[in-house]
Amino acid sequence: MTQPRSSISSPPRRPSGFDLQGHRGARGLRPENTLPAFDLALDLGVTTLELDTVISQAEEVVVRHEPWMNHATASHPDGRPVAPDEARSLNLFRMPYAEIARYDVGQRGNPRFPEQQAMAVAKPRLRDMIARAEAKAAEDGRPAPFYNIETKCTEATDDLFHPSPERFTALLWHVLDATGIAARATLQSFDVRTLHEAHHRALPIRLALLVAYESEHSVTGHLARLGFVPHIYSPDHRLVDADLLTAAASDGKDELPWTVHAPEDASF
């Protein structure tokens, strides 16, 4: 496990004021988790870029939601759409990034988001995505963004679609530390094991517990399962009511419901 460079790393920071997050960049308008999506999110004034990460064969951190090629949006290098029955066989954990980058993920558009602009684009490595976002913020004269980064892993798929949580956390930390943005980063996950690892290693980043709609409706139960108080409690927005907000506000945690796409989703 790569240890934090405590002499260099700054304490974790949080955005001031309202934190407007771009879910997978600007998912409704550009192909999700791609450089054009993050560019547009910055142009729209988001505070934080939210994204997902998986691991390639050579242990590079790649910005992507699924650890395989999504049949709804991905195309083979020769232009053929990825078929539903082959999607999981295109396992990114068994593919070098050079091969991953040959698959287009934007030309077909996304049937769930009719306003999304179709374009030829590939999924980026995390280090490249951060470098571009930092450079764009500097060029535009705007504050550098924060990053809310999810580790996509489950116990059932360890060593099949991703490395162990210890190794996954180490690889992610290496990128955050090397790019100098760790103080503005949050590690979020449904899988408490990566959060446990970051907490155990005292990594100087914020930690967010993601809570699914299907889970028990108990903040106390969720935190007991985690075993410590994270910086952020992040439930499905459908779980949010006055009682949950009151319970979640204890211990100095921030609350970050996900994912609100419309004003009516923000009311209860």
So what's the overall shape? globular
CATH class category name of the domain at 21-204: Alpha Beta
Radius of gyration: 18 Å
User: Low-confidence stretches at least 5 residues in length (pLDDT < 50)?
Assistant: 1-7
Written overview of the protein:
- The chain is of the alpha/beta class.
- The chain contains 7 helices and 8 strands.
- Strands 1, 2, 3, 4, 5, 6, 7 and 8 form an 8-stranded mixed β-sheet that branches.
- The longest helix has 15 residues, at 126-140.
- It is globular, with a radius of gyration of 18 Å.
- The N and C termini lie far apart (43 Å).
Give the topology.
Blueprint: E1 21-23, H1 35-43, E2 48-55, E3 61-63, H2 97-100, H3 126-140, E4 146-151, H4 165-179, E5 185-189, H5 192-200, E6 206-211, H6 219-226, E7 232-235, H7 242-248, E8 254-255
Parallel strand pairs: 1-2, 2-4, 4-5, 5-6, 6-7, 7-8
Antiparallel strand pairs: 2-3
